[in-house]
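Hello,

Following up on my earlier ticket. Below are the two sequence lines again, exactly as submitted.
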Amino acid sequence: MTRTKLFALTGASLLGLMMTANAVNAQQSGYLSLLIDNGPQSVAVAEAWVAAYTEKNPDVTIDIEVRPGGGEGDNIVKTRLATGAMADVFFYNSGSLFQAINPVQNLLPVTNEPWQAGIQDSFKSVVSAGGEVYGTPFAPAMGGGIFYNKPIYEELGLEIPKTWDEFMANNEKIKAAGKTAVIQTYGETWTSQLFVLADFYNVLTEVPDFAEKFTAGEAKFATTPAAVKGFERLQEVYEAGYLNADFGAATYPDGIRMIATGEGAHYPMLTFGIGAIAETQPDHLKDVGFFAQPGDDAATNGLTTWMPDSVYIAKTTASPDLAKDFVGFIGSPEGCDIRNEAVGATGPYMIAGCELPADVPPAVADMLPYFQEGGHNGPALEFLSPIKGPALEQITVEVGSGIRQAADGAALYDEDVRKQAQQLGLSGW
Amino acid sequence: MTAAVAPALKMQRRSLYPGWFYLPAAVIYSVLFLAPTFASLYFSLTRWTLFDATFIGLDNFAQFFREPFLIQGLVNTVIYAVITSGLKVVIGMMLAVMLTSQIMARGYLRSVIFFPVLVSTIGVGMTFTVLMHPTQGMINQALALFGIAGPGWLVDPKLALFSVALVDVWKGVGLATVIYIAGLVAIPKDYYEAARIDGATKLQNFFYVTLPLSRPATATVITLSFIGGLRTFDLIWAMTKGGPGFASDTVASVIYKQYQAGFYGLSTAGNVVLFILIAVLVVPLTMFLNRKQGHE
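Thanks for your patience. The regenerated structure is below:
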């Protein structure tokens, strides 16, 4: 780093400090728009933050605008950024989807803002582009794995599986007992990707440099046996007849209800589902546990982790100082406390000083050991590589409902990935 | 009109309406239609991120035709258009014949048939998605009462496209019926009287009088519903989003998904393909239908 740059950075952080000091002493005033996704948790927590913030700063008005999630939401975010019509502050994914919204051009960097000092580096790496940090986590870290219904496990005397074979053996017993072994909800296509995405820790244990080679266009899903396995597992579960009868039409809320009430024994999902269970089935929250998607070897059993979504500031904002102050509020221990109160704790926070309450739901407690000493975890592919093919969810619906063979699905996904890599202008494609 | 009168009329028209009267329309047409059309032709040749565009020649088109689900989308589009326009012609004609005859509550029935046309497509799509749910949907629950195990209307890859097409027919047949009613009412009664004197049966009446004389209505119904079927999007998106997998994708839904994924150049190329597809199928079709009409 050159001297001038260093000087500029120091200056910027001093300025930032002064502004925060200012915020502590004097109340903020002005107007902000806040664009959030329509997940019930996002809405509840955003409302709680806005209420708390505007209570402290009565002269601030914050309008919450809700958008759909999934591909529809990507579309809205990209289009509004491209046309300069983005809200001042907005929620969006970190990792590969963040890279696809052209952050350097569209977002306000927050690298040297005071609250960033408390944010873990592993998170900063997935919201950085061109040497600047753009995001602040607004949720805890997540794991991708399998929810299980505890009463069914107790009733049938099952053990938490450490290998895929044990998992399938459990499924067989559950099916023999006349119950639905695995819940799938292809009515919302994004939920179909979990068996493939959550298998990535297992891919990494066998091919540690898969992500780099994948980004460079050298490693493919179809030609890497460890990577095809996720698709094969998806197909196996379907072919064994373990799925709920309405797997093709059921939706995510159906899946949440089924795993909580014991209509099914396993549901592959991200742990943010805990929040949805707490919201819609509070009486059954204690009935749901969680384990990582098992691989071939019990010794390397570990969890595929997801970085939380992030809150960003659009470069087009008319009130950058107010926006930064509000984002800093979300990214503070106080923000975490408000979140814990509004939607409960769903996993470990990426912010220093943020504590989990003592009485976390069992599914959260099940997840924590993977993050602690002696536990194994590794990030999902979308946080190691900027490439994620947009058609994966359709392909996994096909493989997961017997329309397409696993190997064929993996090859089709490689083709889909190529388009995304070309669009991002990566070399080697 | 004789040859001598025609030029005189033309002259008169020219003096009545000066050329620059066209200007406002021409400006609107160029800004809202010509400019975007040519811009999209250019962008279809680029890798476009909305922020910048790289010229890549015909790569987008090569990509578009290489992918299996895009080709399937093309095939599905044509199947969908043929099924919906075919059924609308047959059912619309039958309903129109019924509703122009002397039956009870004719006015009421006419409005009932037309009613679905007025309802929002997305609303219809969502309603039928609920009705067609494989286990909790009313359709399959009703079938279960008779001991029939209903199929997965929207989740069986072999059925999904046809289920959506049927809903499209349910929603659109009212319009076809109204066009046919207008066509049938316009047929002079003399023909039917002459036929009756000749001793024609009801069936002969239909095949030798009604059917040939309602050809203009048929041409309109076919053209409208065929184009509508080719560019259909809203109903498919509301009901299956092209799924399961890619089983009910049409060109329009594939284009939308490429756009959603941020492949703006590729999706623009898809729009160019759709434009050409509609032109190639519809222009000869209308020429064929209109020529037949001219013989009358």
